[in-house]
Amino acid sequence: MHDHASPRIAIIGAGTAGLTCAHQLRQQGLSPVIFEKSRGIGGRLATRRTDHGDAYDHGAQFVTARDPAFVDLLANLQQAGAAAEWLPRLPKQAPRPAHTWWIGASGMSSLLKPLAASLDVRLRATVSGLRRHAGRWELRLVEQDHAEHFDAIVITAPAPQARALLAGVSPLVDVLERVDIAPCWAAMLGFDAPLDVPFEAARFDAGPIAWIARQSSRSGLVGRGDRWLANAAPEWSADHLEHSPDEVLTLMQAALAERTGVALPPIAFAQAHRWRYAMTTRPLGQPMLADASARLWVGGDWCLGARVENAFQSGLAMAQAIGAAW
């Protein structure tokens, strides 16, 4: 397909769903433009680097694969040096994982870099409004005073954010009400001495803390001291959603000491991050939403579940549907 004949397609969000969709469209000869409000790609495949250069994977902790196409993608990413297996020591009583745990070779955010390599990704580009006008889409950004026009729009934001963008614009907004997504507070903690526990990752079924992982057990994740990531449980996160990061850190540190049964070493670094839309608890039940006549597609992990693989499946389904529309 020649560029001058190509439709202009905008993709909102440079997470797994958006980049998968864009990468597939690029392979079909289309040239989508991706708008991402953050300063980097990946969405919840996120790596935070401190002022001292220490790295924390503070979003999704690992990726698993069941879908053959996603298994193939991860194999290709491993071959390209972007993905690595993660084999942390687990508590003695913990069951062995049923599926390989994959991580980014130099932080989770590096996992998608090969997909984004040839794409037009515009970072720090926050979409503030959409309007259907004269058979095309008008897209407005917070950061610029003029609108851009596109033939098709793909929205891969979390369902509540997609709902806000589509309010008064598309009937798909009502279907999005069915989706529920739980929040998660994540605490990044750097200690001057090792945390004295006999494992490197653990899940907890009760209490404020749901998961902890030693960041130095993750290949390519650079930093000093003993660095840990703790995720709060969904219910606890919801109850403390509007608390300040400092309040949350104090509570989570106390809960971590209680849960592990060891005194925390002196803290060299502490930061909390609130994921307002972290884990799908009630998915849509189909890979995407589409209004083909309006050239509008909406998707994300929340369509099928809570895993990164679900975001990939949604992005793939949208790309296939868009390819069939032209």
Strand-helix topology:
Layout: E1 9-12, H1 16-27, E2 33-35, E3 47-49, E4 55-57, H2 68-79, E5 83-85, E6 102-104, H3 113-116, E7 120-122, E8 127-133, E9 136-141, E10 148-150, E11 152-155, H4 159-166, H5 172-175, E12 180-191, E13 201-203, E14 209-214, E15 226-232, H6 234-239, H7 245-260, E16 267-282, E17 289-291, E18 296-298, H8 308-325
Helix pairs in contact: 1-8
Helix content: 10-25%
* Secondary-structure element string: EHEEEHEEHEEEEEHHEEEEHHEEEH
Query: Major beta sheet, specifics?
Result: 6 strands, mixed
What does the average pLDDT come to? Answer: 95
Would you summarize the structure shown here?
This protein is an alpha+beta fold. Helix content is 25%, strand content 28%.
Structural account:
By secondary structure, the chain is of the alpha+beta class. The protein is 25% helix and 28% strand. It has eight helices and 18 strands. The protein has a six-stranded mixed beta sheet, with helices on one face. Helix 1 links the parallel strand 1 and strand 2. The chain is globular and about 65 Å long. The mean pLDDT is 95.
Overview features:
about 325 residues; globular; five-stranded antiparallel sheet; alpha+beta; about 25% helix; single chain; six-stranded mixed sheet
